[in-house]
Amino acid sequence: MILVLLTAILLGIFTYSVWVWSYFIRKGIKGPRGFPGIGMLIQTIDHENPPFLKYREWTKQYGPVWGFTEGPQQTMVISEPEMVNEIFNKQFDNFYGRKLRPIIGDPEKDKRVNLFAAQGKRWKRLRAMSSPSFSNNSLRKVKTTVQECGTEILWNIEKKVASGEDIDMLLFYQEYTLGVISRIALGQSESKMFQNPLLPKVKAVSYFLFSFISSHEGNFQIFNGSFHLFLLTGVFPPLAALIRKMSKSLPADFVPAFKIFDLIETAVEARIAQREADAKNGIEPGEPQDFIDLFLDARSDVDFLGEKNDDFSKSVAMKVNRELTFDEIVGQCFVFLAAGFDTTALSLSYATYLLATHPEIQKKLQEEVDRECPDPEISFDQLSKLRYMECVMKEALRLYPLGVTANTRKCMRETTIDGVTFEEGMNIQVDTWTLHHNPRVWGEDVEDFKPERWENSASEHLEHNGSYIPFGSGPRQCIGMRLAQMEQKILLAQILKEYSFRTTRNTQIPLKLVGKLTLSPESVIVKLEPRKDLL
User: At which positions is heme bound (predicted)?
Assistant: First the structure.
């Protein structure tokens, strides 16, 4: 009887796995198949062969709409601008969720859900609460902190230049962006640049629980436990909830994100204790100094897990409760730390590589910086005058769209677009690389680094019609986009006022790209040459 029962259970599991795996075959939708029970999961967590570059090859093979499975999850991949615009903007009410890995947790039940993962009414509340952090007024307040971090990077650059060493700018930019986000998000009072114990931990989160975790020197060390854990929860999602409950007892190398949560929780608790002590001593609270202060001002003991999304609509006015629980505060600080560290450092790295390999464009940019920012102190208003720099940054992100993971949605209500039916629960992934390298949209010079293409007013509509989405699109567009742009402008202007980027024999040309959550260069090694026109 036991043998019969086990046989029946195994047969049932196998039958269910084949049924899920064969979904796109039954629907007549092309795509890579993989194996029953696993699908293409292994191929989409391969650090050395980034899945987002594989999407480009599969799109060439299967067309602009195709599908694949990852364990029990089904994902449709699209690369048509019109369909992207329809899903991200026009039909947002049908696609207000985001594709999530099981280890992230259930966005409806997780007490620490963050703005990236939340959906429906909870997302709307978290978005409303977080938006003031990125207003013009808030950015003006943190501009000085950002510039101080840039100045410290320049000091370290000077040491390298004096010794004649090449510099891996990716590592320097990571130090810079972690320094900025630690001070404006986590209230770190002093700089810990190049000796910040958070760096290897945050790097681990940025590579998102995968088998490779970057050391402080930029080398990669394998942690098979993390890889197997991720693969296991991808195939058997119910195990993710159990692993999350065991997070405090698991080694940090297995699930580094959970350990970052612990550090942030300690920081928030310390700030609460400080506030309580100040209140007892009659000290009035001042203006919020960082994200923790901002969120604590809206702290509530109410549990919002009961919010229902059956009638969610972005266009319908609804009263938003401007309160956050303690766990939600921890969740928001976590996502701003992780996202603010990695993506901005990578954007700066790609821009640096492209400027180093295109000296004529770099010279034109330096002329603009000299003209618009003549003083050592760069003012907030001067940043908006760096128009050509904006073109350089946009073009760098067109050629190297790094945050592809964010360009996903989940179908919340069945709908049909251009003859393609998206069933409820279906994941949608944009093949951003193909989208940004489409010659029908960008012309035959699509592979060229050409910032001037953004000086044409006709290109502006491409940011609104689904053709260009480096920061996402629609209501869920990256909330930190303007902060990231300010960080990039300030540091690039500071560096280019004094130095020129030059390639060396150690520069990877072309760049070797790696990563799963974001698309990262393996290194960006250049030489910084003091500007001869200033000597």
Answer: 478
